[in-house]
Amino acid sequence: NSVVAIVGRPNVGKSTIFNRLVGERISIVEDIPGVTRDRIYSSAEWLNVSFRLIDTGGIEIGDEPILVQIREQASVAIREADVIIFLVNGREGVTAADEEVAKILYKSNKPVVLAVNKIDNPEMKEQMYEFYSLGFGDPYPISGTHGLGLGDLLDAVVELFPEHENEDEKEDTIHFSLIGRPNVGKSSLVNALLNEQRVIVSNVAGTTRDAIDTSFNRDGQDYVIIDTAGMRKRGKIYETTEKYSILRALRAIERSDVVLPLIDADTGIIEQDKKIAGYAHEAGRAVVIVVNKWDTIDQHDKAIKEFEEKIRAHFPFLDYAPIVFLSAKTKRRLHTLLPEIDIASENHSKRIETNVLNDVIMDALAVSPPPTKHGKRLKVLYATQVSVKPPTFVVFVNDPELMHFSYERFLENKIREAFGFEGTPIKIFARKR
Ligand code: GDP
């Protein structure tokens, strides 16, 4: 998928436009303690072309001077995006800060579409002309608050997307990536895995600039491993700052079916591990937790059970994820990893027939009747699976306001009991019927 970034000085309306372009998806947020709220990437779609949008505003640093923030933001956009939307404010005209942004973008050689925001009615269009001076050709007048002009803007953006290679890849190929803080053993595990496999192609150039994709086949199943760690090891392309490694991880997650958060058995679990694993969950990817460096642990009978309890306590939001204990160094238990990836991936794209699903839901309703609120009782009419990756269910009810988080959780558990879904998050939304 192509990546689009919105760049502009503070207050031009970046987040309004971002939210408009992402549509209602942005409002579908889960309220799970411990899961990060930084939503840097979101998916969007225009005329059947799906793309990803970076909220560069989300990575602005609070107290830095405006110029520093602008530079920072623009450089992230230039690195990550295929097309940049340069946003200015039609009510204020060209400012020095806009010119600063223009200068940086000009040097980048990235395709830029200039959008003039806050043009709320046709009479205001005259105010756009001065923006020709920024040197990005025809400005596109838009209104974030009224949602005007976005279609033309998106036409122009989509037009500039690069042609993607690799799109003939087989549909059932499993894409997976390893994420984790430095030194948990990501590179070691990638190498250990690939040394065991007959590697088909290793694609450095391709569509991504921040990961190495390597394809292999095992027992008839195709895999692509998306390796971001190896890139850093080469040392030149990216800085090693935390922010860039997070962006790189997010990009890898976006392209993955299955994400493997790595835990270092030797050093144990720290806060940063939780945050990184949270990204995989938030993105709705299948997850297999890997505890690496298992060779460093005293191998007594209960070692695995004890470590598993620790993980479950630290990652309650990943209760569906299987845990694999292995050593990239000695290759002990390495063979247990791919089978878990297979299962998680299969469940991630599993579809349940509506009638079978409703049998389960009706049984659940019988076991535990829906809650009441202000004397009104929730009525569940029927449920249907609306999408996969991750499996997403809509439950039609009399009044969505009456659906309580704990009841949703109860239904989720019943669905999991009946259909498995090990390794994948599932989503449930209540809609009014
Ligand atoms: P990355 O930063 O996550 O890619 O981590 P590396 O793969 O570079 O590994 C960091 C360090 O941990 C290196 O010194 C590795 O040799 C070591 N390491 C990786 N996997 C294992 C393992 O399974 N057991 C032990 N004992 N050390 C490991």
Q: What would your notes on this structure say?
A:
Residues 2-165, 174-349 form the EngA-type G domain. One of its GO terms (biological process) is ribosome biogenesis. Belongs to the TRAFAC class TrmE-Era-EngA-EngB-Septin-like GTPase superfamily. EngA (Der) GTPase family. Associates with the 50S ribosomal subunit. The structure is a single chain. With 433 residues, the protein is of the alpha/beta class. The chain is 33% helix and 23% strand. It has helices at residues 14-22, 66-80, 96-108, 150-159, 186-196, 229-234, 242-254, 271-282, 303-314, 337-348, 354-367, 405-419; strands at residues 2-7, 41-46, 49-54, 83-89, 112-117, 140-141, 174-179, 199-203, 212-218, 221-227, 258-264, 286-287, 289-292, 323-325, 372-373, 376-377, 380-387, 392-397, 427-432. α2 (66-80) packs parallel to α3 and α11 crosses α12. The protein is globular. The chain binds guanosine-5'-diphosphate. Guanosine-5'-diphosphate binds at residues 180, 182-188, 229, 292-293, 295-296, 327-329.
